[in-house]
Amino acid sequence: MAKKEFLKGFGFSSIMNFLRRGKIREKKIAKFDENQVFVPSQTNLKAAALHPKTQEGTLVEITPMGDKGNIYTFQGDGFAFFRAGQYVNIRLNYGKSIIARPISIVSSPLEALDGKLSLAIASNPKGYFAAKAPELLQLYKTFEFSGPSGDFYYSSTRDEPHVIAAAGGIGITPIISMAKAILEGSEDFKLTILYGVKNEKEAVFAPILNEICNKTNKVSFRLFYENKGEYITSLAIKAEAGNSPYSLFVCGPQGMYEAFDKIAKELGLDQKHYRKEIFGSIKSLESIPSYPGSKQKTYKGIIHMVDKIYEMELPYDQPILYALEKEGIATPNRCRGGICGYCRGRILKGEVYIPEIGDGRREEDKKKGYAHLCMTYPLSDVEIEIPAP
Ligand code: FES
After folding, report:
1. In which residue ranges of the chain is CATH 2.40.30.10 found?
2. Fold annotation for 298-386
């Protein structure tokens, strides 16, 4: 948009204030009195309640999902209201290490206001977090979560009134939350779920979906069994859509996203109509065509955090954030998929690799050498500056 056109519609004084914003800010800082008591505005107080940095809950129930993992239900003093499809980042301590992961919320937004929050964690003996979760998540212990995060939710101004959701295995959890939200009335759109599973045993959310579909005609679902050669294809999506516009939401294991990028292209869907849940960490670095390869197995990392300096080994194939956590260095993070920017650090020295698929940095950050450490891999010894937790 041309600058002139952009400025149309603003008053003269607001344009002048906008242009002088640097000087105005400097004057305010110069006037700041250290002894002055800061009274937050009502708007700030409401925003803090809606978007808390952290919230706490006591684990009150563990429901097995067959042998596919568990649903962990936490009770708290009313959790923050969230948009169905969002996640919270849970933080656990393991020895000196910190383990944090974003986990999709499977309960509904109104249940959160009643103090109930359920998170589904799939079992994965090879996964660092998933393997330790059953041991660390003990009944009647209290745990800390981030506030609700992520933009994988329905927005009436952005999305079509009909959402077709392609969901794979246990990764369906954000869609279950959406279906519950439609049933309770906190969301209003038509949801068609295409639920892909390996076999009947994996369809652990089919009973709850049946129950929801029997109570509302706004939600429907269809199962696709891989062991019977059934797959969610562009034809299946077209059949559900008919001639009406729709948004395609996709969530599930990482392999699904590549397949659905192709399907979305076949369907001619633009970015606005094709939405994916956060990508998560990279499973196989070497399989990314742009990865230049590593000369060494580990590198030396020097980490500056305010007035502290830490030294540690950085494995070539792990995001730098993971190495920090293994050393017990708490640094902010939420999505762990390169998008939210909470784990931002500045590379002072050395070379790193940031896969394009998880590079959610702003252009200005790229120029200034900032990196999202959950998606940054060392290619040499590095020196990094990180913020305090
Ligand atoms: S935690 Fe979100 S960008 Fe790293």
Report:
1. 52-146
2. Ubiquitin-like (UB roll) (3.10.20)
Ligand 1 contact, 343 CB (< 6 A): yes
Task: Tell me the pLDDT band of 125, cut-offs 50, 70 and 90.
Answer: confident
Question: pTM, whole model, 2 decimals?
Answer: 0.85
The topology under which CATH files domain 162-276 is: Rossmann fold (3.40.50)
- The CATH architecture assigned to 52-146 reads Beta Barrel (2.40)
Residue extent(s) of CATH 3.10.20.30 domains in the chain = 298-386
The H-or-E segment that residue 12 falls in is helix 12-19
Q: Is 196 in the pocket of ligand 1 (CB under 6 A)?
A: no
Ligand 1 pocket member 263 (CB < 6 A): no
Token readout for 340 is: 């939210």
**201 phi/psi in degrees, rounded to 5:** -60, -30
Euclidean distance between CA atoms 1 and 324, whole angstroms: 42
Pocket test for ligand 1, best of 86, 91, 281, 343 (most atoms within 8 A of CB): 343
- Could you read off the pLDDT of 261-271 as tens digits, one per residue? 999 999 999 99
Decide: 338 in ligand 1 pocket, CB within 6 A.
yes
Residue spans in the chain of domains classed CATH 3.40.50.80? 162-276
Counting from 1 in the atom list of ligand 1, the atom nearest the Cα of 373 is 4
CA distances in angstroms from 155 to 85, 99, 159, 236, 249, listed in the order given = 11, 31, 6, 24, 12
In this structure, what token pair is assigned to residue 321? 């954030």
Which of 342, 377, 384 to probe ligand 1 with, by most ligand atoms within 8 A of CB? 342
